[in-house]
Write a structure and sequence with these properties.
Blueprint: H1 19-28, H2 35-45, E1 50-53, H3 60-71, E2 81-84, H4 88-101, E3 110-113, H5 119-128, E4 132-135, H6 137-145, E5 156-159, H7 162-167, H8 171-178, E6 186-191, H9 196-205, E7 210-213
Parallel strand pairs: 1-6, 1-7, 2-4, 2-5, 3-4, 5-6
Helix pairs in contact: 2-3, 3-4, 6-8
Bound molecules: adenosine-5'-diphosphate and magnesium ion.
Length: 218
């Protein structure tokens, strides 16, 4: 499958996204979709669960970021999207990209919650509230257990670099977080590789997912 396949969009402006998001993409100079974006974004924007596999640097953050921003209602000041990443560095990268994509949405609050950082400021930020939380599983679960974080209104869950999260032994912690999320939600799982363990996770966490894969040779 290639980007020129007629049933895949080629450019961002042909996607059914909210106008401010499209305008901001133009301002950012994002024109053509990458292959994984072309394959995944129509299903993501339509609200389907998606498993996306493509190598590092292929634009997976923009794929899930546009999906969750499209669904977000900034008037409702509560956590509507949760993005789980394996490391603080990756969570910071994702938050940076989301802030770029969200520039057109006024008053949007994106919060990172990662291990290795002091609790105090995180608890303070959580008291102020957020629309999107990006973080590492251990710290997110910690805040949940202590009653600092309410995930009952999450509409979109993203498991980014899910293969690495499993490699790092986050399976049990992921299960504890999943128990706190609404069953009716969209779940997007992204991974650079697709080991067998991902299948088991996906079948428990996603519902009738579309699986899109960009072969490593691309
Ligand atoms: P991945 O998560 O697949 O490793 P990223 O989402 O981090 O990849 O994207 C890698 C880089 O490509 C980022 O700097 C991002 O801003 C850029 N990028 C993503 N999609 C596009 C696009 N359609 N056009 C131009 N640049 C893009
Ligand atoms: Mg990534």
């Amino acid at each position: 499958m290639t980007q020129s396949d007629s049933n895949h969009p080629r450019d961002f402006q042909s996607l059914p996204l909210q106008k401010p998001l499209l305008k901001n993409l133009q301002d950012l100079g994002y024109e053509q979709l990458t292959e994984i974006q072309a394959m995944a974004l129509p299903a993501i924007v339509a609200g389907r669960d998606v498993i996306g596999q493509a190598k590092t640097g292929s634009g997976k953050t923009v794929a899930f970021g546009l999906g969750l921003l499209h669904k977000l209602n900034v008037e409702q000041f509560r956590v509507q999207s949760l993005v789980l990443c394996p490391t603080r560095e990756l969570a910071d990268q994702v938050a940076r990209e989301l802030r770029k994509l969200a520039r057109a949405i006024h008053n949007i609050k994106i919060l990172t919650l990662c291990g290795g950082m002091p609790f105090g400021p995180q608890i303070g930020s959580l008291k102020h509230g957020a629309h999107i939380v990006v973080g590492t599983p251990g710290r997110i679960e910690d805040h949940l257990r202590k009653g600092n974080l309410d995930l009952k209104h999450v509409k979109t869950l993203v498991l980014d670099e899910a293969d690495r999260m499993l490699d790092m032994g986050f399976q049990a912690v992921l299960d504890q977080i999943l128990a706190e999320l609404p069953k009716a939600r969209q779940t997007l799982l992204f991974s650079a590789t697709y080991p067998k363990t991902i299948d088991a996770l996906a079948s428990r966490v996603l519902s009738a997912p579309l699986k899109v894969e960009v072969a490593a040779s691309h």
